[in-house]
Write a structure and sequence with these properties.
eight-stranded mixed β-sheet; 168 residues; 4 helices; 8 strands; alpha+beta
């Protein structure tokens, strides 16, 4: 699954492509996890499990490097979970490389996750977001997600999570 992306700010950066991650992406996904999150990072084995799982999808956003290196650079990722027998998917994570923040990549990853959930027969998508993640909350609310619950003390540092849902 690849979908070319449009760079919303026209700043001359290469346009990412989003596709399903493979085990060949594992090292880059682990590095992204460490670059994007200060706490609550997924461990290498959890990422490997997600890549291999029949009920999970890891979406990778990649760009071609400017120096003609044949190996694309991972700049974002999203993890989508599904349960057998359920039509509700869960967005477990969206990670964007710090040097790509504010360029619309999170929204593109969200679009790709929603499309993948629909393709797998899901009709709703749920997610949790840190209560202090203003950018994430704005993104989800702009996209029509509705907060339906609060989970106190959800994250490692004690921060609560706001739970959101949207019909697909």
């Amino acid at each position: 699954m690849s979908a070319p992306l449009r760079n919303p700010v026209g700043d001359g950066l290469p346009e990412p492509t989003i596709r399903i991650a493979t085990l060949a992406d594992l090292d880059a996904l682990v590095a992204l996890e460490h670059a994007a999150f200060a706490t609550d990072r997924a461990e290498r084995r959890a990422i490997r499990h997600a890549i291999r799982s029949p009920t999970m999808d890891v979406l990778a956003a990649l760009i071609d490097p400017p120096d003609r290196d044949p190996v694309p650079v991972l700049v974002g990722a999203a993890v989508l979970e599904r349960r057998r027998g359920s039509r509700i998917a869960r967005l477990a994570s969206i990670a964007v490389a710090p040097n790509r923040g504010g360029l619309g990549l999170g929204g593109r990853l969200l679009d790709a996750a929603e499309a993948r959930a629909r393709a797998e027969g899901c009709d709703r998508l749920r997610l949790e977001v840190r209560a202090d993640n203003g950018a994430g909350i704005r993104l989800y609310e702009r996209r029509g997600y509705t907060r339906f619950a609060v989970r106190p003390d959800y994250y490692e540092d004690g921060m609560e999570a706001w739970r959101y849902e949207r019909a697909l």
